[in-house]
Amino acid sequence: MTKAPVTVVGLGAMGAAMAATFLENGHPTTLWNRTASRAEPLVAKGATLAATPAAALAASELVILSQTDYQAMYDSLDQAADALKGRVVVNLSSGSPDELRRADEWASRHGAELLTGGVMVPPAGIGKPGSYVFYSGREETLHRHRETLGELGETTFVGSDPGLSMLYYQAQLYLFWSTLIAYMHGVALVGTAGVSAERLRPFAATMLADLAADGTMGFLKVMTEMIDAGVVRGADHNLRMQAVGADHIVEAAQEAGIDAAGPRALRDLMWRAVDAGHGADGLASVIEVIRRS
After folding, report:
1. 19, 70, 112, 264: which has the fewest C-beta neighbours closer than 10 Å?
2. What is the mean pLDDT of the chain?
3. Are strands 29-32 and 48-49 parallel, antiparallel or unpaired?
4. Does residue 216 carry a pLDDT above 80?
5. Residue 116 three-state SS
6. Which three-class secondary structure state does DSSP give residue 114?
7. For 253-276, what is each residue's pLDDT tens digit?
8. How far apart are CA 184 and CA 13, in angstroms?
9. CATH number, domain 168-292, options 1.10.287.110, 1.10.260.40, 2.130.10.10, 1.10.1040.10
């Protein structure tokens, strides 16, 4: 059986990987890109390059966008607005949640449906085991195209609010970046004493595993339960004690002559929570300061 046709707009590293994945899985694939030459390797594999955005939209009900930002969607498709009617536009570009909500209104004005998404793997991971994409919009629409979109990775529906997919995406991305940058800071700190990154890595890996564990020592699980229950108990290891420890991390960075901006921001956030009356509570109480900022 012929698989559903799909149009891919935007052929940067991510868009090209998506188009290649659709092709490899037997989907008739139409392309459009502002720089047409980027389509040449995919055309050589069987894709069709549309001459105009309108022709690209006409080729498929399902239109995948992977561009620099949401403004690029308007720049590319405003000129072909009449061809949007009846299309399902899946925008997997990055933006702010409110920007995605405005884009949903724009699509509706032109008779199209918008599904927004956040791709949680780099281009090389598209379609590979472990890849997944957050989607928001109409669940019925996602379900109708789940098989095709599933070629890119697991389809994870997070809600009807078009901005939700980006909230999930940015929450995960912030966690990813901040964790790895904190690790780099640790590497730089011990490196001032001649310790290699590899010497530190097993200890960092053990800590990350402990954070993610499901048992009573799984700090992520315990903190999640506290946050959802509104209980931020401190017991013997209260926030004030931890804020003093954060002071010492800043001092260590300064003494070592490495950048202390990250540890200082962390320390300051903890002390703001202490100053707000949470000194006797646990680390989870910091979220009250984050929510108010």
Report:
1. 264
2. 95
3. parallel
4. no
5. strand
6. strand
7. 999 999 999 999 999 999 999 999
8. 26
9. 1.10.1040.10
Is 156 strand, coil or helix?
Answer: strand
> Which fold does the domain 6-160 belong to in CATH?
Rossmann fold (3.40.50)
Question: Cα(113)–Cα(137) distance, rounded to whole angstroms?
Answer: 8
Residue 241 confidence class, pLDDT cut points 50, 70, 90: very high
Question: Strand 48-49 and strand 62-65: pairing?
Answer: unpaired
Longest dimension (CA), the chain: 68
Angle at CA of residue 247, ends 243 and 250, nearest 5°: 135
Per-residue pLDDT tens for 50-89?
999 999 999 999 999 999 999 999 999 999 999 999 999 9
What pLDDT, in 10s, does the model give residues 136-186? Answer: 999 999 999 999 999 999 999 999 999 999 999 999 999 999 999 999 999
Pairing of strands 29-32, 154-159: unpaired
How do the domains of the chain map onto residue ranges?
Answer: 6-160, 168-292
* Neighbour count for residue 221 (Cβ, 10 Å): 15
pTM: 0.92
